[in-house]
UniProtKB/TrEMBL annotation:
Belongs to the histone H2A family. Keywords: Chromosome, DNA-binding, Nucleosome core, Nucleus. The nucleosome is a histone octamer containing two molecules each of H2A, H2B, H3 and H4 assembled in one H3-H4 heterotetramer and two H2A-H2B heterodimers. The octamer wraps approximately 147 bp of DNA. One of its GO terms (cellular component) is nucleosome. The keyword Nucleus applies. This is Histone H2A. Residues 101-133 form the Histone H2A C-terminal domain. It comes from the Eukaryota. Residues 34-98 form the Core Histone H2A/H2B/H3 domain.
Length: 164
C-alpha cells in the first residue's frame, strides 16, 4: 500500500508529506507594477541591511514608491497646468511638493536642483484690488493687439540697431 502511494505521488510530480501533497508557494504575486519587483528583491538581499529579508518587504516597498511617484507626478502635472505649460520641469515638482502638507513634511530636507524657492509674500504688501475701471474717453480705449505688436516690433528694432 505504501509503495502504491509513493508511486502515485511520483507520477503526479507532487512532493508529499504526512498530510498529502504540498501546495506550491509563490512568493511574488503577479501584479503589474511600474517598478521591477525582482530587482528590489535582489538588491535588498545584496545590500545586507539585515541578515534576512521577508518575502513581502520588497513588494511593500515597491507599492509605497509607486504611490509616492504617482502622487508627486499628479501634483506636478496640476502645477504645470496652472502655469499654462505642457512639460513638467523641476520647478513644478518643487512647487507640488512644497504646496502639499504631507509631502512637504516628508521631503522637507530634500533639495531639488533648479527648484528655486516658494514665494511667500505677506498679503498686506500686495496692492488692493478695486473694481475694474472703465476707460475715460473712447480715444484712450485699449488699442488693437495688431497695433500694439507693430509698436513693440518698432521699439525692438530701434533698441537693437547701433545708432551711434
Amino acid at each position: 500500500m505504501k509503495n502504491k502511494l509513493m508511486e502515485w505521488s511520483k507520477e503526479k510530480n507532487d512532493v508529499g508529506g504526512r498530510n498529502g501533497p504540498r501546495k506550491k508557494v509563490v512568493p511574488v504575486i503577479r501584479v503589474r507594477f511600474l517598478f521591477p519587483v525582482n530587482r528590489f528583491i535582489r538588491y535588498s538581499k545584496h545590500v545586507r541591511y539585515t541578515m534576512r529579508v521577508g518575502t513581502d518587504a520588497p513588494i511593500y516597498l515597491v507599492i509605497v514608491l509607486e504611490y509616492l511617484a504617482t502622487k508627486i507626478l499628479e501634483l506636478a502635472g496640476n502645477a504645470t497646468r496652472d502655469n499654462k505649460k505642457n512639460r513638467i520641469i523641476p520647478r513644478h515638482v518643487f512647487l507640488a511638493i512644497r504646496n502639499d502638507d504631507e509631502l512637504g513634511k516628508l521631503l522637507s530636507a530634500v533639495i531639488i536642483a533648479h527648484g528655486d524657492v516658494v514665494l511667500n509674500i505677506n498679503p498686506v504688501l500686495l496692492p488692493k484690488r478695486t473694481a475694474a475701471k472703465e476707460p475715460k474717453s473712447p480715444a484712450k480705449a485699449t488699442k488693437s493687439p495688431r497695433k500694439l505688436m507693430i509698436r513693440y516690433v518698432r521699439w525692438v528694432v530701434l533698441m537693437s540697431c547701433d545708432c551711434s
